[in-house]
TrEMBL record:
The lineage of its organism: Bacteria, Bacillati, Actinomycetota, Actinomycetes, Pseudonocardiales. GO terms for molecular function: DNA-binding transcription factor activity; transcription cis-regulatory region binding. This is LysR family transcriptional regulator. It comes from the Bacteria. Pfam families: HTH_1, LysR_substrate. It comes from Amycolatopsis decaplanina DSM 44594. Belongs to the LysR transcriptional regulatory family. Residues 4-61 form the HTH lysR-type domain. Keywords: DNA-binding, Transcription, Transcription regulation.
Length: 295
């Protein structure tokens, strides 16, 4: 037995509801002849006589009325499935899961999110703040729709797009000896000095290490490892030691920038999402907004 097509089941239900093939055909926008052929096909597939055809017209047989009742329930279940799928799709489109590294989360992402929310008042948005390596992992595993990282270079398994540029600076407290040095430090002087640093996996730590390697010296030796930019900044202010932090974190704080000869602590900030996946909906809107705001 071959299952009848859904359009044919709809026709059968309409015949029962409207009382004739002609009215059912008109409701579906087809000819009575075409409707009659469809019903004949259903009868052959089910092996049942559904229509009592006479010169005075056609009507459902008792078997036809039973099948029409079952068809009505099948179509109602299908409508429920489609309505449910639409509700899930609409809810999914109204949700945006974002992850951002510390610097981006403190200085850029809130402004982007605020603008997106003003344009999409019904948007439900979640933001997870962690270091760049963890953001990349969340994006790679599909745990977030889009991530923002400050890692130097490409990230495996991810598509990316530049959204901003950040400059890092060496800073000390005003009581530190470097605050009174008039000449730039050499890369070697910085490399042999234990620094207050972020943890492994942070974009700041990786940028500093990469810049020093490019200058021909080894990576810095940590004096104190802390889990956020604000913690690093506060430790420097308290006199714990020098650090390399974002220029955004220097403003309005008791910190003294110190130049380093021949070392450029610049990093590209990127949006990331899984390789092979095309961004759509709110994630694409957020990316476009971030690119536009930073241009």
């Amino acid at each position: 037995m071959t299952a009848p097509e859904l359009d044919s089941l709809r026709l059968l239900v309409l015949v029962e509801e409207l009382g004739s093939i002609g009215q059912a055909a008109a409701a579906l926008g087809i000819t009575p002849s075409s409707a009659s052929k469809r019903l004949s096909t259903v009868e052959r597939r089910l092996g049942l006589v559904l229509m009592d055809r006479t010169r005075r017209g056609s009507a459902l047989t008792p078997d036809g009325r039973v099948i029409a009742g079952w068809a009505h329930r099948v179509l109602a279940e299908l409508d429920g499935l489609l309505d449910g799928a639409e509700a899930l799709r609409t809810r999914r489109e109204a949700e945006l899961r974002v992850a951002a590294s510390m610097t981006l989360a403190e200085h850029l992402v809130p402004g982007w999110i605020g603008e997106l929310k003003r344009a999409n008042s019904g948007l439900h948005l979640g933001l997870e703040v962690t270091n760049s390596d963890q953001v990349a992992e969340l994006a790679r595993e599909g745990e977030v729709d889009i991530g923002f990282v400050e890692s130097p270079g490409a990230t495996a398994g991810l598509m990316s797009r530049k959204v901003a540029v950040d400059h890092l600076v060496v800073v000390v407290s005003d009581a530190h000896p470097w605050a009174r040095v008039s000449r730039p430090l050499t890369p070697a002087e910085l490399a042999i000095t234990p620094l207050v640093t972020r943890e492994q996996g942070s974009g700041t730590r990786r940028t500093v290490d990469a810049a020093l390697r490019k200058a021909g010296v080894r990576a810095v030796k940590p004096l104190l490892v802390l889990g956020s930019a604000s913690a690093v900044r506060n430790a420097v202010i308290a006199g714990a030691g020098p650090a390399v932090i974002s220029a955004w974190d220097v403003a309005d704080h008791a910190l003294v920038p110190v130049a380093v000869e021949g070392v450029d602590f610049v990093r590209v900030l990127r949006a990331v999402w899984p390789a092979g996946r095309r961004l759509g909906g709110p994630a694409a809107e957020l990316l476009a907004l971030a690119v536009r705001r930073s241009s």
